[in-house]
Design goal:
Blueprint lengths: L1 H18 L16 H4 L2 E11 L4 E14 L2 E10 L4 E10 L4 E5 L3 E10 L2 E12 L2 E15 L2 E10 L2 E12 L1
Antiparallel strand pairs: 1-2, 1-10, 2-3, 3-4, 4-5, 5-6, 6-7, 7-8, 8-9, 9-10
Length: about 180
């Protein structure tokens, strides 16, 4: 009897763990609607932190962004300054195929980033090649952006390696 209870509990945990995944469908009826082309047209500033797999803050940073658009094609430049003095830069090219689907590319992104917009949320998935010790490593990035006010986005990014969460980025961006 005890083995059956454990088996049933295991099956229920497996089923319900699949139900806790974030889905863009949830955000479709939100009153606020995110428009990436409008938000990232011009200057944006942000403040964020990196967290390890245990949820401990490891670094903080500021970021300045500048976006320009030509129809459905955008260039988004990012300049990061970390609390230890490190400075990095990334330039995204973003191409919308329709009002809710886009792809992105950047020098340190492996292949294409695939993104979707729905309601007040954006989900972007990609592989990022990051410096690690004397080499680099690829991390799977699950990037979520939420419009919380007209000119403010909260961004949470889960970083995984071999399917295991190794860190998270939390960032607040404000359009100037």
């Amino acid at each position: 009897m005890k083995k059956i209870k454990l088996l049933v509990m295991g099956i229920l945990c497996f089923i319900f763990s699949g139900c806790t995944n974030n889905s863009l469908d949830y955000y479709g009826d939100k009153a606020k609607k995110i428009d990436l082309k409008t938000f990232f047209d011009g200057d944006v500033e942000g403040w964020g932190s990196l967290f390890d797999f245990q949820g401990r803050q490891t670094r903080s940073f500021t970021v300045t962004l500048k976006g320009t658009w030509d129809g459905d094609v955008g260039i988004l430049e990012e300049w990061f300054i970390f609390d230890d003095g490190e400075k990095t830069q990334r330039t995204w090219k973003i191409v919308f195929s329709d009002e809710s689907t886009f792809v992105g590319s950047a020098e340190d992104v492996v292949g294409e980033a695939k993104g979707r917009v729905n309601g007040n949320a954006v989900n972007l998935n990609y592989v990022l090649n990051i410096p690690y010790k004397d080499s680099t490593m690829n991390l799977d990035m699950d990037d979520w952006m939420y419009l919380t006010e007209k000119n403010t986005i909260v961004n949470r990014t889960s970083m995984k390696k071999f399917g295991f969460k190794v860190g998270e980025i939390v960032l607040v961006m404000k359009k100037k």
